Amino acid sequence: MSLRIPGPTPCPPEILQVLAKQMINHRGTEFNDMIRQITERLKEFFQTKADVFLLTASGTGGMEAAIVNTLSPGDKVLAVSCGAFGERFATIAEGFGTEVKRLQFEWGDAASPEAVEQSLKADPSIKAVLVTHNETSTGVTNDLADISSVARRFEKLLLVDAISSLGCIDLPVDRWGCDVVVTASQKGWMAPPGLAMVSFGERAWQAHSQAKMPRFYWDFAKAKDSLDKGQTPWTPALPICYSLAASLELMAQEGLSNIVERHAGVGQKAREGVKSLGLSLFADETHASNTVTAVRAPEGIDVKKLLQVLREEHDLVLAGGQATLAGKIFRIGHLGHVTESDIEEVIEALKVALPKLERP
Ligand code: PMP
What we know:
Order of helices and strands: EHHEHEHEHEEEHEHEEHHHHEHEEEH
Low-confidence stretches: none
Strand order of the largest sheet: 2-10-9-8-5-3-4
Bound molecules: 4'-deoxy-4'-aminopyridoxal-5'-phosphate
Shape: globular
Number of helices: 13
Distance between the termini: 30 Å
Largest sheet: 7 strands, mixed
C-alpha cells in the first residue's frame, strides 16, 4: 500500500527495523548519547543554535508547548490563519486565555505579510504572532521569510507551526529570527508519529521568564535542565527516538539542500501531473506547497468514492479535505521518503480511477 497522505508518511526500512530494538534505560548513557546526537542533528536541520527539545507528543502537543511556555492569560496575540491548522493554533491560544486577534485569509490563499504589518501597526499591544509555515489543509506555503521580518521589525515574539515543512522546505530558523518553531516526527522526518521537536530561542526564553500560563508536562525549564543531563524530564517514546536517530542519519547523508531540492522537484511533478489530467489546484499556485498538493474535486466526483477506488484498486492512500473542504478537495502528500516516480504512480492511478467515477 502506498501511503501518500501528508502524514504519517512512509518510513524507509532502515527506520522500521530499529523499532524492534529492546528498550534502554532513559536515564543511562546510551540514551544520553542518543539524545545528544539527535539534538545536534536537529539543530542542523532547523539551522539554529537555539535549544531544540524532543517532546513525547504529536505536533499539536508541540503547538500547545509553544504557547504555554511563552505567554500569559490576557496576552494579546495575532493569529495568522489561512486554513485548518492556522485555526487550530488560534484555538489553542484562546483555550489558554490569550486574547486572540485572528487575521484570516481565504482558504487556498497565502497569508499576506503586508496585512500582518498593518495589523501589528494598528495594535501595538499585540505580544506575539502565531503563524503556520505550511498550511497542510490547503496545500499553501506562507512567505515566512517576509512574515518573520515584519515580526522582527515590530519586536513581536514569533511562534511558527512548521510541522509539515521543516526538513523538507527551507526554513533557516535563526536567519529568519523565528523564536519558537514546531515540527513532528511523522512528517518530513520519515519516522512514526510520537515526537514533537521544538526550537526555543533567546527571546523565547525571555518570554518564558514572564509567562504565567499553567504548565507542567510541557515546561521547557524542566526540559532544559534534563537535556543538560542528556535526558528528557519524562519517559520518552524510546522506539520513536531510535527511529528519529536513524532517519536523521539518512537525512544527513542526503544533505539538507538536496532534500529541499528533491521536495521542490516532487512538488512540481505533482502539480504538473494534476494539471495534465485536466484537474485544478486548490492553492494559489504562486504559494503551492512542495509537501502537499490540494486538488479541487472535479464536478460530479464523489471524493470518498475516489479515495476508496484508489485504495482498493490501486493500493494507494490519498487524503480528503478537512473541515469545510471535506468533499471538495483531495490531497496528495509528498513529504519525507518520496521520489518523483512515486508521484508518477499517483498520477497514473488517478488517470485510471477518475473516468470510472464520472457520472454518465
Ligand atoms: N499543523 C500542521 C501544519 C499539520 O500538518 C499538522 C498535522 N497534519 C498539525 C499541525 C497537527 O499535528 P499532529 O496531528 O501531529 O498533532
